[in-house]
Amino acid sequence: MLLLTLAAPSVQAEQYYPFKHGYYGFRDLLRGDNLTLMAVGTGLTLVSLGFDDQIYNYFDRKSYSIGTVPRESAALFKREMLPSLIALGTLTYGLLSDREREIGSGQAQFEAIGYYVVLVASMKFLTFRNGPGGDSLRHAFPSGQVGFVTAGHLTRMYGWAYGLPVLAITSAGFVDYTFRGVHWMSDMIFGSVLGFAMGAAFADHHISGEADAVEMTSIMAYPILSTSADSGRSYGLGVQVRY
Predict the structure, then answer these.
(1) Per-residue model confidence as pLDDT tens digits over 2-58
(2) What residue spans of 128-184 are helical by DSSP H?
(3) For residue 210, how many other CB atoms are within 10 A of its CB?
(4) Per-residue pLDDT for 196 more than 80?
(5) Residue 34 shares a structural domain with residue 107
(6) Are residues 180 and 68 in the same domain?
């Protein structure tokens, strides 16, 4: 029997595997201080559920305001655009200057933002909860707070000196939403804590160096042609995965 194997070049460490990074990120979310933070946040959310109506009714009768500048600054961080631009700037700087830490930081930010947005959207769909004030859209829980993802990431990656300013701005948005009755308190508590914890958790495996091991997966695909006097020719495709 004649066996002919034609092998294509393998895909090596330069490849990026977002799903494996996602696995490490969610694994670290359920470890150490990230798990502690999520436990505390979940507990506060459950407590707040019992007082959501009272909190909303209290501030609905008031006319508190944090001011236009803090409100607009917080709004910039609440959506995905500015946090994504920060991630892009960090990643670009790392690539241009060949700095592995900044490359990993940019990747971690994109990972955390992407998975956070998907997770929040999924939870909104599953919980099907209306917001206060006659809202009938049924996507209140949890409140999407992407700025807290950036704050958590910067705090874990570079320290409080970098994370605290972003945390202060995004927290101002939290207070503004409370004053204006845009969300239930429980929506905002869980969304904010989840964001901060995910920002920190997705940085962990980049800091520890496990991200390097993630990239070592290789895949080889090759066609196979087999001939024999009895069965004639047969064809196949071989795939080799190393991880």
Answers:
(1) 444 444 444 344 577 888 999 999 999 999 999 999 999 999 999 999 999 999 888
(2) 146-158, 160-180
(3) 15
(4) yes
(5) yes
(6) yes
95 with 2, same domain? no
| Maximal CA-CA distance, the chain | 90
- The answer on 193 and 102 residing in a single domain is yes
Q: Which residues contact 227 (CB under 8 A, 6 or more apart)?
A: 1, 2, 4, 233, 234
Q: What's the order of all strands across the beta sheet hosting 232-242?
A: 2-5, 218-228, 232-242
Helix (H) or strand (E) holding 222, with range, is strand 218-228
Residue 3 and residue 43 share a domain: no
**Domain check: are 97 and 45 in the same one?**
yes
109, 153 Cβ separation under 8 angstroms: yes
Type of residue numbered 14: E
Alpha carbon distance 69, 64 (integer Å): 15
Q: What is the DSSP letter of 67?
A: -
The reply to whether 2 and 95 lie within a common domain is no
Cα distance between residue 52 and residue 61, in whole Å: 15
> Would you mind telling me the total number of residues written for the chain in this entry?
243
Considering only CA atoms, give the Rg of the chain: 24
Residues 2 and 69 in one domain: no
Q: Extract the tokens encoding 211.
A: 């991200």
Distance CA 183, CA 201 (A): 26
- Give the residue numbers spanning the domain of 42: 18-213
pLDDT tens-digit map of 118-128:
999 999 999 98
DSSP codes joined into one string, 83-142:
HHHHHHHHHHHHHHHT-HHHHHHHHHHHHHHHHHHHHHHHHHHHH----STT--SS--SS
Contact 109, 87 (CB under 8 A): yes
